[in-house]
Amino acid sequence: MTTTPSDPPPGAPADAPPIAPAQASAALGAGRERRLHPLSWLFVLLAQLRSFALPLIALLVFGRGGDSWEFLGMFAAGALTLVAVIQYYTYRFRIDASELVIRSGLVSRNVRHLPLARIQNVALRRNLLHRAFGVAEVKLESAVGGVSAEAQMRVLSMADAAALETLVRASRDDAPADADIEAEAAPQGETLLELPLIELIKLGLTSNRGLVLGAAGFGVFSQMDSSGFGNLVGDTARGLFGYAAGLHLGLLQWLVVVPLLALALVAALRLVSVALTVLQFHGFRLGELDSRLSVEAGLLTRIRSNAALRKIQHWTLRESWLLRLFARRSLKVETAAMQAMNETQGLSDLAPIAPPAVIDALLARWLPWLRLDALQWQPLHPGAWRRIAFWPVLVSIALCVPLCWRIGAWGLLPLLTVPWWLYRAHRIARASGWAVTDRVLAWRSGWLDRRVSFAEIAKLQGLQLTQSPFDRRRGMASLSADTAGASPFGHRLDLHYLPESDARALYAQLAPQIARSALRW
Question: Which residues form the YdbS-like PH domain (predicted)?
């Protein structure tokens, strides 16, 4: 981890030197339409083939031989190649005075006008093949996305990608004048955070990527051939149980072997998590140039994204119990850019793992007016623990009914988890809380996995007060605050189980402020 100046700046590709906006506009052929890189059709074809990779693998593994399958495969490959070539010849882009104009389509023709100042993020993606040909896939994200990125250019040369990034950076509201940028032909960026291999290993050990990958793989293979997969699992299980029965182990030996096998499985999953983490975050670099942040990472596929600091809408600090074992935290953000469905925002993990002092220093640099340790945290409703424990306890009790019917009194074993659920609910309720100042709204939750999220009140987009019948009976209410580009899977500003009086007072305080505030994207 370092905070020393670096060259080239975080906003420029490693193998393309920074240029001035006038030069960038000339390099992109300002005022005239251009095609993408001549090899664009190849990368479009490869992207389409990735979509069909899983069915093709299933066909090869479970399909039966025959010339008809080979003919269909050749026909599909030819059709995809033709589509890729047509996309290349029908895709045009043009740089006008202050906007990017994109024309695409053969039968259904589309023309998109993208003001450069409205572009929130420029994301570059480069895998090994991209690097071999000196090109990059460019995605332009804005605050009015949808199921796809605002614009996706597959692919541009590195020189064109650098020129486009320069134009976007120069067009933002707080950019210096062109003359100033012209005078600074090679601006210096500052590296704020780098992650060595040992930090990536710690990050992998604290993540569940291996478990998620294993569960996803199990689900995929189970859908390929349900009967064949079921037979495979059944035969494997019977073989293992038969082998175990042949060992003639006693109870004490089983008490030793089973935990060891469980530990071996956990260790294997953690090793997979470490490998996936290294692939994703190798060479991680967080940089800043002219109040614009840039994140670059990746071993095989290198991805770089950048966005203006002022466009960050939502901040989240996380401390899981594993991160606390290594004395580490993580920092994630959300910008106003809307990314494609099933994809994460490019500029998300500002600090995947770092010591608390480093993250505190970064926050002090970017938000000098904010002091999280000085916030006056307010507790939840005294009965919040009952609401937290309600569903887990109900499920434990409900499980006893079918189990008792099947195995008798042993079916009451799930009741042993009830004290744990009650204890857990007390700890979560005690650890959760909310805080508000004249500039920021903050929410913390979690006991083993602690998270603190906050957002500037001026950047809140919506406010919702909700009460369920259980809440009304207990005198509780929940308040949810929304920001632009919010992910439904992140740690939201959902203030649950507040005293009703506090929730209504907070709503009355924030609603007029949000109504008066101009949208800050």
Answer: 88-166, 290-337, 430-510
Has residue 458 been placed in a domain?
no
State pLDDT tens for residues 125-161: 999 899 999 999 998 877 654 546 678 888 899 988 8
d(CA 94, CA 103): 9
Tell me: pLDDT of 490 over 90: no
Residue 122 identity (one-letter amino acid) = V
CB-based burial, 289-310: b 16+ in 10 Å, e otherwise? bbebbbbbbbeebbbbbbbbbb
Query: What is the average pLDDT across 429-450?
Result: 95
Q: Report d(CA 480, CA 438) in Å as an integer.
A: 18
Same domain, 37 and 185: yes
Is beta strand 110-115 parallel, antiparallel or unpaired with respect to 121-126? unpaired
**Statement to judge: residues 179 and 239 lie in one domain:** no
Cis bond before residue 155 (omega within 30° of 0): yes
DSSP lists the bridge partners of residue 427 as: none
Indicate whether 98 and 244 sit together in one domain: no
Residue 390 lies in a domain: yes
The one-letter amino acid at 484: A
As given in the structure block, the two tokens for residue 45 are: 């074809």
What's the token pair of residue 207?
A: 């993540």
Neighbours of 477 (CB within 10 A): 24
Could you tell me if 113 and 217 lie in one domain?
Answer: no
Query: Taking 90 as the threshold, does the pLDDT of residue 478 lie above it?
Result: yes
Model pLDDT for residues 333-353, shown as the tens digit of each residue = 998 765 544 454 567 899 999
Residues 190 and 228 in one domain: no
Q: How many helices (H) and strands (E) does the chain have?
A: 17, 20
Q: Is residue 187 part of a domain?
A: yes
pTM, rounded to two decimals: 0.80
Q: 108 and 10: one domain?
A: yes
- Look at the block and give the residue holding tokens 């998300």: 348
* Tokens 């950076």 -> residue: 169
Whole-angstrom distance, CA of residue 59 vs CA of residue 81: 20
Closest CA to 493 of 448, 432, 430, 447: 432
Say yes or no: 170 and 213 in one domain.
no
Q: State whether residue 436 is helix, strand or coil.
A: strand
* 131 shares its domain with 185: yes
User: Could you give the dihedral angle defined by the CA atoms of residues 397, 402, 404 and 408, in that order, rounded to the nearest 10 degrees?
Assistant: -160
Beta-bridge partners for 141: 121
* Lowest mean pLDDT segment, chosen from 209-213, 264-268, 365-369, 389-393: 209-213
Residue 276 domain-assigned? Answer: yes
The residue written with tokens 């079916």 in the block is 411
Which two tokens mark 119?
């572009």
Query: In total, how many domains does the chain have?
Result: 3
Six token digits for residue 92:
């045009």
Q: Which of 52-56, 288-292, 390-394 holds the top average pLDDT? A: 390-394
Q: Which amino acid is at 368?
A: P
- In the chain, the N- to C-terminal Cα span, in Å, equals 30
